């Protein structure tokens, strides 16, 4: 990476292209992002948009037939794009922790929780059996597990999903990593436990200065947890910026569409909304905007050539040829006004008519 990275920059991905099927198709196209110490960056988008693939590339665990064909991945100032497996193994746990959607599938059902936590501590940190036991109890307590001594001796089947996710977080932070990658870590949990895990991740960030890359399909979760958000669509970044700015002033039609189907605001008063159509197949050769076939604002210019990210502010970018079109800006304001479940006059309602009117206005231009 050219130049010197900021001293607090933990992860930097620059112009990353990832191919699948042994190079036959591109699944990620020109993805760039960074995460700093004490910062939580959210990745959001539909299934298959490239969020998890980006995380796997950042972890050095791309599956067979999938490769980083172009671009760089830098961790703590070191280029790790083509790092050998043995070097990645040294980073995993010690410097980069990871938590995934289904914690039960990552824990051995036949071993106690304590034995699985202490194994990491003994292998990665070289602790004695007694020291590892004491540290494991400390970690289980730190992630909010009551009666940590009892949990230590239980097997995974005796714990709830929320408790198992706390165990996975304890393992992930056991060696004081600089970066935590959480891929759909709250998706399978009920809303109460989800909120507790969100607060736990915030506390870990505040206490340890942890950098967090957090993946979710839910903008409500992203809004609650993250400092910045990166919106993915069909393997590309289509919008990025501070989370409140993206929620309040979304400028890409796809981000606007996500907000209309998300649980941001008073979702109990919402009508059921969907985004018409389907994302393109992975690796599909498309000229112009990859969202064009589903976009209410599409014009001939959208399909004419590749669309670059346009800078809209100090940290806000969007990939749309009409990003500065007054109608699109008006639609952005309509989505923001609609999100809390109020119409323009402040009267509580579903907001569906407001969103539909904005779509019709865009489609007519």
Which structural class is indicated by helix and strand composition?
A: alpha/beta
- Large-scale geometry: globular
N- to C-terminal distance: 42 Å
Q: Tell me the total number of β-strands.
A: 12
In the CATH scheme, the class of the largest domain would be Alpha Beta
CATH superfamily of the largest domain: P-loop containing nucleotide triphosphate hydrolases
Number of domains: 2
Q: Trace the largest sheet across and list its strands.
A: 6-7-8-3-9-10-12-11
The helix count comes to 12
Q: Considering DSSP H and I runs of 4 or more, what fraction of the residues is helical?
A: 25-40%
Task: Describe this structure in a few short sentences.
It contains twelve helices and twelve strands. It has 365 residues and is of the alpha/beta class. It folds into two domains: 9-226, Rossmann fold (3-Layer(aba) Sandwich), CATH 3.40.50; 249-363, no CATH class.
Structure report:
The chain has 365 residues and is an alpha/beta fold. The protein folds into two domains: 9-226, Rossmann fold; 249-363, no CATH class. The protein has twelve helices and twelve strands. The chain has helices at residues 51-59, 85-91, 113-124, 129-142, 148-152, 161-172, 191-208, 219-225, 243-248, 253-261, 326-338, 352-363, and strands at 9-20, 25-36, 40-44, 67-75, 78-79, 96-99, 179-183, 211-216, 228-233, 236-242, 310-311, 317-318. The strands form two sheets. It has an eight-stranded mixed β-sheet, with helices on both faces. It is globular. Mean pLDDT is 86; it is low at 265-270 and 338-365.
